[in-house]
Input
Amino acid sequence: MSGETGGTSLDGLREGGSRHLLALGVAVVVGLALAWVHWLGLFAAGALVGLVSRDLPRAVVAGLVVGVIVLVANQFVVPAMDPSEFLGLAPASYVTIAAAFVAPVWGSLVRAVV
Output
């Protein structure tokens, strides 16, 4: 639906190259900053990387990558807790892991609409 009337700025970012990588990087950073404030930021992070992705499959993969980045960042934020201790906090750790993967992927599905 990106005809003559709209979508030209996003189309330019989706083409690839350095502008695309920069847009993806900015989307991840902004999404992580939003997730720092509220868990809905995970959804927003996925939506942001989905918006600058070339197509829906790449958007979903980008959402999964955001989930991995969130989990890695979680380990850096809480350096006193190693991954085995984190998993020992079950079921809260399971909810955290599921949210880190489900919310960004769900958000990345916005690419199917835009």
